[in-house]
Design goal:
This protein is α/β, with parallel strands linked by helices. The protein has 4 domains: 102 residues, 2-Layer Sandwich (Alpha-Beta Plaits); 181 residues, Four Helix Bundle (Hemerythrin (Met), subunit A); 124 residues, Beta Polymerase, domain 2 (2-Layer Sandwich); 148 residues, Four Helix Bundle (Hemerythrin (Met), subunit A) (Up-down Bundle), CATH 1.20.120. Strands 3-2-1-4 form a 4-stranded mixed beta sheet. Strands 7-6-5-8 form a 4-stranded mixed beta sheet. The longest helix has 35 residues. It is globular. The N and C termini lie far apart (78 Å). InterPro entries: HEPN_dom. This is HEPN domain-containing protein. It comes from Parapedobacter koreensis.
């Protein structure tokens, strides 16, 4: 294979510069996106020959791409890549796929040995590899909690150093396919920053960098210097950073599994463990409310003062900007729940807080896979803070304003603006009055569709048609949610038809779904999640098996939910009629 086969002259020139000066077996091109900017990462597999040092080769490759900022180089040996693949590192496997090979020496010495293409096995290996990485982190986290409770802060710092070091190594394997062999946390921050700026800036403020330096010092000092210690306050700061790092790991692992499944869909190979993007986003919403919250990493009690809305706003905006750049963010609803439990017998005291913000997020360009990004944001925000958002392109939002769409005027004028300039919005026109007759007719169409679908399953549950019944019931619930949103808002987010997402949006209007389907009870919520996955399971999983007993329960609840929604919407229309008189 030679460089003349490439249409990109910049890539052709880079490969030519590298291969003229180094003996290279293979080069793979792995494109990825950082903050909306495409980066082309070249993986140069250097032949292990006399006179070819890895350090000099890296310097030469970096020189070859120095004039092309959109290109970067990573240099390693083929046997090192093969070792990673054999260990179950699926990122390395995905990087070294045949469709990413851009150069191969005519007399290649050692090729990358790829496993047989079996996406179900690949998903299993990826999960197993991730579990192994997390188990190492958990072991050190338990050590941190043990020494913290013993007030041995020096050893606690050493254990926490290992939590964060192993976390960064796991992140590097998930994102880059190769971890940095170093015990310096600063080195890991610098190593991963080009691939994941969020982790490169995890310790960003001056005091946080000072804490990072103390953790690095703890690696050697805690073993050899018995006088080394670290304040409990600094340990708390570092432990919180460790928890953020674990949330990133969960998101990175989800991204890796998504990529495996996307390749499967693209190649038309659908297997039992495959899930299409609809099913994945359903899982993402569910997982976003069940973020990895291992207490051993941060064993300190939370501050008794509940953070203010301003604190939440700045936190959410900061995390959002790490993934994409919104032009405007409007908050149109907020929910907060606080639960306290005191048991005088066991002397157990628990306190939990959960805050959900409903946002309208505007971007200059249409956002790809918005629910996946929402899941990633919620992973980083933690288990006490969550967003549910409507996503609009700025141009589309302005067009709706010009057309006088009442809901968009409400978002622009009556909600809390978190960020964005007034001048970019076109809000000169007066919103058009609501056409009650038309909207009521549209609501009836949704409601009648839901009624018809529910009638289809009335006598079929418990028979051999349970799987079909689950699909029909999920569509009935979808119609009710869309109908309610359109009746109240005059707008329906039908570009993202994801049932769990639609249910969450209706909760900004009414708690009916949460109350009727007992969504705060994990076992009850799981039944709704399974129902929401029914359509994709029915399409792609030949072994899909619905729970007939759960369907009986859900159908009864769905009927009650339908009746309550109908009453709610009718009261809403009656109110609008009174206002118009």
């Amino acid at each position: 294979m030679n460089t003349t086969s490439h249409s990109d002259p910049a890539l052709q020139l880079i490969i030519q510069r590298i291969t003229e000066n180094l003996l290279v077996d293979q080069i793979y091109l792995h494109p990825f996106t950082v903050h909306g900017k495409r980066i082309n990462q070249l993986y140069v597999l250097l032949r292990n020959a006399v006179g070819q040092g890895i350090v000099a080769a890296r310097a030469l490759c970096n020189l070859a791409v120095s004039e092309k900022p959109e290109y970067r180089c990573h240099v390693t040996f083929p046997d090192e890549v093969n070792r990673k693949i054999k260990q179950g590192n699926m990122r390395a496997t995905l990087i070294c796929q045949p469709d990413k090979l851009v150069f191969e020496h005519p007399e290649v010495s050692l090729r990358v040995q790829l496993p047989e293409v079996d996406y179900a096995v690949w998903c299993g290996q990826a999960k197993e590899h991730f579990d192994k990485e997390v188990s190492k982190i958990d072991a050190f986290a338990e050590g941190y909690a043990f020494y913290l409770n013993k007030a041995n802060y020096g050893q606690a710092a050493f254990m926490l150093h290992q939590v964060i070091e192993q976390g960064y190594r796991a992140a590097e394997n998930l994102v880059m396919g190769k971890e940095k062999i170093s015990h310096s946390l600063r080195n890991h921050l610098e190593y991963i920053a080009p691939f994941c700026p969020e982790l490169g800036a995890l310790f960003e403020k001056q005091h946080e960098l000072s804490v990072l330096g103390k953790l690095d010092e703890s690696y050697s000092s805690a073993r050899y210097d018995h006088d080394f210690s670290m304040s409990k306050e600094d340990l708390t700061i570092a432990a919180k950073k460790g928890k953020e790092l674990l949330a990133y790991l969960t998101a990175f692992n989800r991204d890796l599994l998504d990529e495996i499944q996307r390749r499967q869909v693209e190649e038309g190979q659908v297997v039992e463990l495959s899930e299409n993007s609809e099913q994945e986003t359903i899982k993402e919403i569910e997982q976003a409310e069940d973020v990895d919250d291992r207490p051993t990493v941060d064993n300190e009690p939370a501050d008794s003062n509940i953070p203010s809305t301003d604190d939440h706003r700045e936190r959410i905006l900061s995390v959002t900007r790490q993934y994409f750049s919104p032009t405007h963010v409007f908050c149109f609803a907020q929910q907060s729940r606080e639960e306290r439990s005191v048991n005088l017998v066991t002397l157990d005291k628990r306190e939990t807080n959960h805050h959900r913000y409903y946002l309208a997020i505007l971007t200059a360009e249409k956002l790809d896979q918005p629910l996946q990004k929402q899941h990633q944001l919620n992973e980083v925000l933690g288990d006490e803070l969550e967003i549910v958002a409507l996503y609009f392109k700025l141009e589309t939002f302005n067009r709706k304003l010009e057309e006088g769409h009442q809901f968009f005027h409400f978002l622009a004028k009556a909600t809390e603006r978190w960020c964005g300039e007034e001048g970019q919005l076109i809000v000169t026109n007066i919103p058009e009055p609501v056409d009650l007759e038309k909207r009521r007719w549209q609501w009836n169409r949704y409601f009648w569709s839901a009624e018809g679908l529910m009638g289809m399953v009335q006598d079929q549950i418990g028979s051999r048609y349970d799987e079909s019944c689950s699909v029909v019931m999920s569509q009935a619930m979808e119609q009710l949610c869309l109908g309610m949103l359109h009746a109240i808002w005059g707008y329906r987010p039908d570009n993202i038809l994801n049932l769990m997402y639609l249910i969450q949006l209706t909760e900004s209007i009414t708690p009916l779904a949460r109350e009727h389907f007992c969504l705060e009870i994990p076992e009850e919520r799981e039944m709704v999640v399974e129902l929401s996955k029914a359509l994709s399971e029915f399409r792609y999983n030949s072994n899909f098996d619905a729970n007939g007993f759960a369907l009986y329960i859900l159908r009864d609840r769905l009927l009650m939910f339908s009746n309550e929604v109908e009453q709610l919407v009718n009261r809403h229309f009656e109110t609008l009629e009174v206002v118009d008189q």
